[in-house]
Amino acid sequence: MTPPGSHNPAVYRELRDVLRRQPEITETWYEPDAVQQRYLAASIAPDRVDPPTGPDAPRIEVRWQAGPQTRFRIDYADPNTGFHCGWHRDDDHPDLGETHFQYERPDDAPIHEAVDLSATTPPKCLWACLDELFSLRLPQLTSE
Predict the structure, then answer these.
(1) Where do the structural domains in the chain lie, given as residue ranges?
(2) Per residue in 6-21, pLDDT tens?
(3) How far apart are CA 48 and CA 1, in angstroms?
(4) Residues 99, 95: Cα–Cα separation, whole Å
(5) How far apart are CA 98 and CA 116, in angstroms?
(6) pTM recorded for the entire structure
């Protein structure tokens, strides 16, 4: 049994499968390595996002902790533009509810929004966040 507040290798395998099925993603791996598996990372093809970016590959990091109160972070970062965004279920912004979305452009203060994720399992939650990231958030927030 997985201790409360720790990562679950089975959940990380499921999450890695979700990342591997995403067409924008070219590679996935565990950090710091396959033995310790503290979190997942993935690289994104710069020409597969809207608007295209490059030359360096943007990156997604997924951290998931199971327990009585599941905590997670799904973060996207583009080294070409300095744009960063992500979905977080943590205790950082209790005024926004259980989960929030945040984004930050270079030279701007971070913006936080309350979100309500209807997905209840880790893979469905990641699918929903990735779909929103690539179909809605990146086109809206990086082309302004």
Answers:
(1) 9-142
(2) 567 889 999 999 999 9
(3) 39
(4) 10
(5) 8
(6) 0.91
